[in-house]
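Hi C.,

You asked whether I'd gotten around to modeling the 118-residue construct. I have! Everything is below, sequence then structure, no commentary in between.
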Amino acid sequence: MLNGLLMYPVTEGGKVVHYFDNFAEALLYALIGFAVTFLGIVILIAIVWAVGKATKKAEEKFAAHAAKADLSQPAEDAEGEEGIGEAERVAVMAALAAYLESENSTCEFKVKRIKRLY
């Protein structure tokens, strides 16, 4: 019964040609398709895993470099890329805190970066 479902006759040049001769041939093609699909998924997983490892290694290297740069510069004299010193940063944070306190705001935030705009 199943063999009849897989044998779909097609006419080519006046001659009847079957896609599959028997059930075993169809099963073989299905298994080959499953194997190729599984192999493709395994290859994609391996690529994503390798990219994740490379990204993690690069982040660790960057963090080590950043930590080394932070240790070489004292905190009191540290100025950002824009030339803003620690005193100016503290003054800006204090001004923001005073403003939000006067507005009775419940916003809790932490200033991470102050950039000078020209």
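If it helps when you're writing up: The chain has two domains: 2-72, 75-118.

Thanks,
B.
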